[in-house]
Amino acid sequence: MVAWLCDFDGTVSPRDIGAAFAERFSPGGAASRVPELADWLEGRLGHRELTRAQCACVRARRDEAVAFARSFTLDPAFAPFAREALGRGDQVMVVSEGFDFYVRDLLEREGLGTLPWAANHLRFEPEGRVTPEFPFADPGCDDCGNCKAQHVRRYQAQGCRVVLVGDGASDRHGALAADEVLARGGLLEWCRTQGIAHTPFADFRDVAAVAR
Prior knowledge:
single chain, alpha/beta, Rossmann fold, seven-stranded mixed beta sheet, 10 helices, about 40% helix
């Protein structure tokens, strides 16, 4: 059996909704200029700490956050790919370093509400403050908020061959653990420089073609 573990921001959703949300709801886009961002890009800081720093700048109510996220769309080929894969008996899961409030909502609006997914939790506080929580973090690692390598290993323990589909830095640990990697964007360049076997893809039409 094959398990397809799909990143959300920049992959299932062509746009990075989490980054856009943080910029839109921080005064003057301050979340996109926190000093921690440069440290994360250089590999000196984990994404969990970057998320905390960016969220400290954000002021948003849940209703306006959800309304903003609904202005984004999913890859139109993702739902057909997921349904076809499930129909074959494969597993499909969304593994996101973004936030649950928009991952859940957008999947449900696409008719994929029963699809398993994992993301960081965003708690909306009084006066518009937000607090990120990381229910899928690896307690032995201070890097990612949602440890994609753990999800890969869980499916492998069930006897699945795991394919990681992703586009960015948050997919690296999952890619290292996966049996196969489909990559684009920053993950594609990283796989090339690290000598990690991978298959490039442009969208989920390509992923579906690989799956058949």
